[in-house]
Amino acid sequence: MTSTTRTWTVEETLAQGEALADYFESVDLSQHPAYPAADYWLMCAAQRAAATGNPDHDRIRELVADARSAGSSWERIAELLGMTVETVRERYSDADDDDQVEPRLAGG
């Protein structure tokens, strides 16, 4: 199994933290089931891509693989990315291959 690592800049780390804080402030978590941390990292990457207009496709692919490894459904991933299930499966079905990405804890 191959492991993929990525170094985050301070700005990227802060942007991820701000996106996560915004999410937690905007939603009543008592009304939502618990989801794996991988889902939240994927959501942050999607929000960052939308805000900057510059998606990091490799990073999103890694996070999709992490979310799938953590048990997230294609429906949940599509919801987080703001895409249809069909589009997500077309773009990221290869990320579901266990040999491509080794899951990491807490998105890093």
Give a structural overview.
By secondary structure, the chain is mainly alpha-helical. The protein is 57% helix and 0% strand. The protein contains five helices and no strands. The chain has helices at 10-26, 37-52, 57-69, 74-81, 85-92. Helix 2 (37-52) runs parallel beside helix 4 and helix 4 packs across helix 5 (85-92). The radius of gyration is 13 Å and the shape is globular. The model is unreliable at 98-108 (pLDDT under 50).
Question: What attributes does this structure have?
Answer:
108 residues, mainly alpha, globular
Strand percentage, roughly?
Answer: under 5%
- The overall average pLDDT, rounded, is 80
Number of strands: 0
Rg from Cα? 13 Å
Any idea what the shape is? globular
Helix content: 55-70%
Order of helices and strands: HHHHH
| Distance linking N and C termini | 17 Å
By helix and strand content, what is the structural category?
Answer: mainly alpha
**Which runs of at least 5 residues are low in confidence (pLDDT < 50)?**
98-108
Major sheet = none
> Count of helical segments?
5
